[in-house]
């Protein structure tokens, strides 16, 4: 293939229509229906033909049409009004600017790094949940006025497009994107030349990247693009595909994202005067090298030692882990990583051993030859979190080995449950119906979401039917297109007219196809499934979609198995696999499905978000109690598929869970859906929808999620970062010196002996007096906390339900010996146990486990 250099020439708009440029380039249109309607009104057919892409629409209008539009006073006035509305949205004070958000402790700017961003189908720079979440994070930050700047890569081909062969095998294509045709602006130097970021590669090579800016409402998203003339051919390909290639290609992508990303932020601030970020948030471990780059900066510019710079960086970094599946974590050969930080790439003050130590699996069960990006994320992030309560718990267990000596419950990983951006995912008609009744979708705390009496049964059922009907129409056209691609002739496709029904209970299942999500669980008993689909009275229809990772043959086999079943002439009117799941498809799929099915292998789904999008449209969830559903299922907002936790035979576990799923669908879901009153309305079903909207509605929104990040992670990180910075970084130097002294002295620290006293018969409410005699060597009593750890004694002689009490320093003997004492209140009956331990104490430690040092009484 010839390397054809292509570019898109953008239209120059007449002066009266200039504002259309900003309206098209600012992606707020993707969640602002009135702006989309304005564009659609220019030429509805063309708007559909360009799949609702404003930049493409404007590019396709000839000069004549533009002249006519410019002379249309009413249209020009609408453009002006829309531009003013956008202007207000971009500048007015919002939640973050109000006292409610927390005031002066808030960071001036937060940098948010992610390997993918799913904002609109027009900008296909995502593969699945991680990217969509990042997109929703930026949009909600914009709605709340949170000053975030996003950092990512611009992939030449984005993620692949999925099609099927005749016999149901997934095939991938990678349509090349042209940045000039996308809603992006090239970042330029004052002289007009493209701004350039560089990262050194081994062997004296240099990786160059241009910067593109996507305006996500108030949030600028900077995307690094290596496909530039300054690069050699190999370097041009670094950003060719999302998660393309393996090993070194991926490492280079992550170096560009992390190291190049920080440099991009510096360029952005220099050119726009934007405040430098005070907090850095890395969405999954891929961007972890951003911490190494910030250490390098501090070493070079402020003369800090590596360990001092590390403290300053850690304090202001937030790391979010997204996977409970070890295979989902990026790991590189440590030797490969070493090449990028040594030899001709060595940097004074940033020794390669120290970089390697950040990602080293130097703990029980680790592989010393590998460099682990999640481990680096945890070591560089002063604050870390999982993405649902359950996932936080699973993560604490998964990474416990990094904090030996501490209980799983003390592993410093918290959780913020994911959320979704309502205005992106709620059907615009449903939204319109809800406006003023489902009041604000922007309130950070979600209050006033839906008054239960705000909508009549008739209205609610009628909009649900409309949305189902719209999905059926779209699904038919996708089925037809897919069969045409698979080689069927129009004459064979008459049945598609009748495929699916706008009146039948519709169950949706769409997500990526890794094994743990169990796409084919529903096929465990094909006859049982067939019976449910073709039931004469209470039929069910299934709409399924999902892409398998191109290298995952097993995932492709699952898709094929499902497609072959769905191809069957006896069921194809009730079950369909729609190829090429993407944001565009998702936006009709969620509103159109009555029930959203999710059957992962618990607890491998970190959060899951598609079910949240369904619930905001009045869909009911039918799901394994995993991720967010484990937290918020309440018995009335959907159904929990019982899990066969503990059954070790995987096939048997699948069979048990599938049988439970069939039973639920038949006896509860379908039974209730088809249970109608004299008006033909499913009243109990509608009651469940109301309950879902009013209780889940506020919780599942990404505004709630972003507000949680601001208050529980960004604000504390900003405070910690400022304390260590202070202009001269004295705090960071002192903390590093203190940690080093504590480490040196720690071997001398011990609990010498413990005295305690309680009455003969201990009763609830009694005090337990504890006095501990300890040796602290060269440390002073204020360097440590001597704690009583108490709880319930379990059958295996461990403590559960741990609580701690800090003892107070009583007296110092000579030679580093001290006594500490205090009273534990026995606040519960039953087997009580306690022990005494010593941990380091410093106001700058984010958790007692931070240093991984603990001495227990023997
Ligand atoms: C929401 C969404 C996802 C993620 O869904 P999960 O339930 O988290 O798997 C993936 N792809 C698209 C297109 C989505 O809209």
- Please count the beta strands (DSSP E, at least 2 residues each): 30
- Which class do the helix and strand fractions yield? alpha/beta
Task: Provide the gyration radius in Å.
Answer: 29 Å
Which CATH class of the largest domain is shown?
Alpha Beta
* Amount of beta strand: 15-25%
Known CATH architecture of the largest domain: 3-Layer(aba) Sandwich
The whole-number mean of residue pLDDT values reads 93
Largest sheet: 10 strands, mixed
> CATH superfamily of the largest domain, please?
Glycogen Phosphorylase B
Q: Ligands in the structure?
A: pyridoxal-5'-phosphate
- The parts where pLDDT drops under 50 for at least 5 residues are 444-448
First-to-last CA distance: 71 Å
Oligomer: single chain
Shape: globular
How many H/I helices? 27
Determine the CATH topology of the largest domain.
Rossmann fold
Q: Level of helix content? A: 25-40%
The number of distinct structural domains comes to: 4
Description:
Keywords: Allosteric enzyme, Carbohydrate metabolism, Glycosyltransferase, Pyridoxal phosphate, Transferase. This is glycogen phosphorylase. The protein is of the alpha/beta class and 858 residues long. It contains 27 helices and 30 strands. The protein folds into 4 domains: 77 residues, no CATH class; 331 residues, Rossmann fold; 248 residues, Rossmann fold; 108 residues, Immunoglobulin-like, CATH 2.60.40. The strands form 7 sheets. Strands 1, 4, 7, 8, 9, 10, 11, 12, 15 and 16 form a 10-stranded mixed beta sheet that branches. Pyridoxal-5'-phosphate binds next to helix 7, helix 21 and helix 22.
């Amino acid at each position: 293939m010839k390397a054809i250099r292509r570019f898109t020439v953008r239209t120059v708009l007449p002066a009266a229509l200039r504002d259309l440029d900003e309206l098209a380039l600012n992606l707020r249109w993707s969640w602002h229906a009135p702006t989309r309607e304005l564009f659609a009104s220019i030429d509805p057919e063309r708007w559909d033909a360009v799949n609702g892409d404003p930049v493409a629409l404007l590019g396709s209008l000839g000069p004549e049409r533009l002249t006519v539009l410019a002379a249309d006073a009413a249209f020009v006035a609408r453009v002006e009004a829309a531009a003013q509305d956008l202007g207000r949205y971009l500048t007015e004070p919002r939640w973050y600017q109000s006292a409610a958000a927390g005031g002066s402790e808030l960071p001036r700017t937060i940098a948010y790094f992610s390997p993918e961003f799913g904002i609109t189908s027009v900008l296909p720079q995502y593969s699945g949940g991680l990217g969509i979440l990042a997109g929703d994070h930026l949009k909600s930050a914009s709605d709340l006025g949170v000053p975030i700047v996003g950092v990512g890569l611009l992939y030449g081909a984005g993620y692949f497009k999925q099609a099927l062969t005749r016999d149901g095998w997934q095939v991938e294509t990678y349509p090349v994107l042209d940045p000039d045709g996308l809603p992006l602006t090239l970042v330029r130097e004052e002289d007009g030349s493209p701004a350039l970021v560089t990262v050194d590669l081994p062997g004296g090579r240099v990786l160059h990247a241009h910067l593109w800016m996507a305006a996500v409402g108030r949030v600028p998203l900077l995307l690094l693009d290596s496909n530039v003339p300054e690069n050699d051919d190999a370097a041009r390909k670094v950003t060719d595909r999302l998660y393309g290639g393996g090993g070194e290609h991926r490492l280079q992508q992550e170096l560009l994202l992390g190291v190049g990303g920080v440099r991009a932020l510096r360029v952005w601030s220099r050119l726009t005067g934007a405040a430098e970020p005070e907090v850095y948030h890395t969405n999954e471990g891929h961007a972890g090298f951003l911490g190494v780059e910030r250490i390098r900066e501090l070493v070079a510019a402020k003369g800090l030692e590596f360990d001092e710079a590390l403290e300053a960086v850690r304090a202001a970094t937030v790391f979010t882990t997204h996977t409970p599946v070890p295979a989902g974590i990026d790991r590189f050969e440590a030797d490969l990583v070493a090449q990028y930080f040594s030899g001709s790439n060595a940097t004074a003050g940033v020794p390669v051993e120290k970089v390697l130590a950040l990602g080293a699996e130097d703990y029980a069960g680790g592989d010393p030859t590998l460099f682990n990006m999640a481990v680096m994320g945890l070591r560089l992030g002063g604050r870390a979190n999982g993405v649902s309560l359950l996932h936080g718990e699973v993560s604490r267990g998964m990474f416990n080995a990094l904090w030996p000596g501490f209980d799983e419950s003390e592993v410093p990983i918290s959780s913020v449950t994911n959320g979704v951006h309502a205005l992106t995912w709620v059907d615009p008609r449903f939204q319109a119906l809800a406006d003023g009744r489902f009041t604000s979708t922007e309130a950070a705390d979600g209050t006033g979401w839906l008054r239960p009496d705000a909508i009549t049964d008739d209205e609610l059922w009628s909009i649900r039917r409309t949305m189902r009907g719209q999905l059926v129409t779209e699904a038919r056209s996708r089925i037809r297109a897919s069969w045409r691609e698979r080689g069927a002739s129009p004459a064979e496709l008459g049945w598609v007219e009748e495929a699916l029904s706008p009146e039948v209970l519709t169950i949706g299942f769409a997500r990526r196809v890794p094994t743990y999500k169990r796409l084919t669980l529903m096929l465990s008993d094909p006859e049982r499934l067939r019976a449910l689909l073709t039931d004469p009275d209470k039929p069910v229809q299934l709409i399924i979609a999902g892409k398998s990772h191109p290298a995952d043959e097993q995932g492709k086999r699952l898709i094929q198995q499902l497609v072959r079943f769905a191809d069957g002439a006896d069921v194809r009117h009730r079950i369909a696999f729609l190829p090429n799941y993407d944001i565009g498809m998702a936006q009709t799929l969620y509103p159109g499905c009555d029930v959203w099915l999710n059957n992962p292998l618990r607890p491998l789904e970190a959060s899951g978000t598609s079910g949240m999008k369904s619930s905001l449209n009045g869909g009911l969830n039918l799901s394994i109690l995993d991720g967010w559903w484990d937290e918020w299922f309440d018995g009335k907002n959907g159904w929990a598929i019982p899990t066969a936790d503990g059954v070790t035979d995987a096939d048997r576990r699948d069979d048990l869970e599938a049988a439970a799923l069939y039973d639920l669908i038949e006896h509860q879901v379908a039974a209730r859906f088809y249970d109608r009153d004299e008006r033909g309305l499913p009243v109990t079903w509608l009651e469940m929808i109301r309950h879902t909207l009013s209780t889940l509605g506020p919780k599942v929104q990404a505004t709630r999620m972003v507000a949680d990040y601001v208050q529980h992670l960004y604000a504390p990180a900003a405070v910690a970062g400022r304390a260590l910075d202070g202009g001269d970084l004295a705090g960071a130097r002192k903390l590093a010196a203190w940690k080093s002294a504590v480490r040196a002295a720690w071997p001398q620290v011990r609990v010498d002996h413990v005295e305690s006293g309680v009455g003969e018969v201990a009763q609830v409410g009694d005090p337990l007096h504890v006095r501990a005699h300890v040796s602290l060597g060269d440390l002073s009593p204020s360097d440590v906390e001597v704690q009583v750890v108490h709880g319930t004694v379990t059958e295996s002689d461990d403590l559960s339900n741990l609580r701690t009490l800090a003892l107070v320093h009583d007296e110092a003997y000579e030679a580093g010996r001290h006594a500490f004492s205090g009273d534990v209140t026995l606040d519960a009956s039953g087997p009580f146990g306690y022990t005494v331990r010593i941990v380091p104490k410093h106001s700058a430690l984010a958790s007692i486990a931070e240093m991984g040092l603990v001495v227990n009484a023997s």
